[in-house]
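Re: the request from the purification team.
They wanted to know what the chain is likely to look like in 3D before they choose a buffer screen. I agreed to run a prediction and write the result into the notebook, where they can find it.
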Amino acid sequence: MASSSLVRWEGDFDSRSLSSANDFRSDTVTLPSGAMLASILSDAPTLGDDVYSEDGPTNALESYVGELTGLQNAVFVLSGSMGNQIALRCHLVQPPYSVICGRKSHIYEWECGMGSMFSQAHMIPVSPSSETRAYLTLEDILPDIVPDDGDTHGAPTRVIGLENTISGKVVPVEEIKRISRYAREKGIKVHLDGARLWNACYTSTAPAATTTQAVEAAKTLLRDYCASVDSVTLCFSKSLGAPCGSILLSKTSSFISRARHFRKALGGGLRQSGVITSPARVAIDRIFLSGVHLLRANAIAKRLEESWKRMGGQIQAGLSQETNFVWLNLDQIGVQDEDFIKIANEQGVKVGHFGRLATHYRELTPAY
């Protein structure tokens, strides 16, 4: 019965996927594919209690992503926010201390102030020095570093939090390496929120590259990014279309052991977590490693931006399309955020706030 239901789901997916085909609010609105759902049943014999590290699909996913990124050590978490906050807490030992991050970063704006609550950290938000650039450079960060020089007035900087992509913009790997080299010299850790790092790995693909070449280039870039930082989170529901979940990775096993402790403290200790992690594994294999789907998601964003410009529209400063985000300048045409959402809804299109359009592979083709 269950098998036949999955067959019907897969066969009817063209129509089911239409629910997200015109939904530009986020790349999290996709439905899991039949293959993702089928993996739950096929992996069921190896399910176990993940609090005891006995869930087969979860252990396999952690090992797989550890190998894929080159970091080797990983722990599955329920969300990117959970992974980011656990990472900060693992890096921070004894207050007082501070964390430097982007003013528009997820860990500063969209995680309920948990850096201060959970880690007791002084969060120092930094903005890019140029309006034409969304990401932080080393030069942006340096003036706000609080040195550990014995001055009892300050909270020494212990962590630099980066994000890639940030507002859909790609942080060059060389810039992350520059920041990390400085951080290592000063005894500062670097955490990368890589919720949409998957998309960033396909932006430099050569136009004439074969699918195999595109995949290998993306895998290499993923490893380069991850090798440059002390910890990184990757999201399975953003970009890849899995139902939920993220993964936190580090170069050291002791960090991940500590992370498991804090995950439990946050209520993230799961039992048969394979019902979530099996679809995540399928998402990596069939979306990220397809060499097609993320390129298409980025391409449709490019076409949207080009269409908007042809109609006389402008893009928000410093936020020209690079991956799967398009930032419409609604002020230029005198349209309020809520009015734009209402107008789009009347045309059967869902959009979010701030003039942002987020694309995903389900807007292009449901077949894979």
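For the purification team: Confidence is low (pLDDT under 50) at residues 364-368.
Please add any questions underneath this entry.
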